[in-house]
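Quick start: what a row looks like.
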Amino acid sequence: MKTIRTKGRGAEQTAEILAALERRGGAALDTVLPAVKRIVADVRKQGDRALLRYAAQFDGLAGASSLRVTPDEMAAAWNAITPVMQEALTKAAEQIRRFAVSQLPASFSDEPIPGLTTGQLVRPLGSVGCYVPSGRHPLPSTLLMTAVPAQVAGVERIAVVSPKPALETLAAAHLLGITEFYRLGGAHAIAALAYGTASIPRVDKIVGPGNLYVTGAKRLIAFDCAIDMLAGPTEIVVTSERGNAACIASDLVAQAEHDPEALAIFITTRADLAKEVIAETKLRSRNNPVARQALDRNGLAIIATSLDEARAITNRLAPEHLTVDSASDLDWVQNAGSVFVGRWSAQPMGDYISGPNHTLPTGGMARVRGGLSVNDFVKLITVQQYSSQGLRTLGLRAVLLAEAEGLTAHAESIRARLHRRRTRD
């Protein structure tokens, strides 16, 4: 990790680093987009013919019959894992489900004035595709985090794709009652879900994180099929004045081990604490080459001149994961994917079992959205119903607004009804 200061000899360089961090995002996608464009175009045009060719090349599959995981295979995986693992998956699913139920928006109906009823209907999406990574680290937790909120929302069809799925991932699918599961990954899996092939019907929305090829494919198909977000490398910021150096460092190392490009930042006003944290990260990453590489590349300890500056920098960075000292710190947090409060709130707890979703915005997108939630799987349909009394109360005002916009047919549509009511009267 590198130490930078906001004041003094290195202040100018620090300002440049912070400005670059604010602009972080999808630049890395440019390196893979030519290949991704070719794959997506092939699958869109040729369907199964291209899909099976890429499945053989990238996933090691022999033919169409090997694409789909059977319910018996998922059941066998469940029976093959230990009872302790079964209980852990079950408890995690319960926690995620409970949180999603609490998040679910409600339909409502209101009468703001006599004669006008307004409201909303909450309806689930018809189908979703859940991408579950299985590369450097298989992630059964991601299956739970994507499929459970979809189930709570009432999505009728949930299709899971995962390349070379781990035993635990298949077991998690069995636990949730998933019936549609494909041994696919990469850009070709995203294209198949977005456009459909003979083997894989298209879905309404694709959710879940993945590598650069997956993210690039999601960006390309986003106007044809809804997506959740473009998830980049994992990010962690810890902003602390009195945290325990060992605990802070352990969280930084934990998130850094996801990816050599992971971003790990500690923000404080205390130079002594920053020094302790850096020493601890070196110690705790010594046998973790991925984490060590990420910390060497993207690890920073930022020493601010004041609490207000430390907090302002935190919000500028809009991190995916953020740890703060106490609940009172929540008052100043404006931009973060998920916040962890206090020494005992280890960030990996949120990755697995707390309940809030671990699919979170990266690249500064926490400025404009939160993590994946049950809300990503529903539509809010607004409703309005007028009586003649309600139309008479508001109609002439609406006519004035329509005429101000030069939309005479809009105005006439309202007048026709007002005139009809006067005739009846």
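That is the whole record. The mean pLDDT is 95. The chain has 16 helices and 14 strands.
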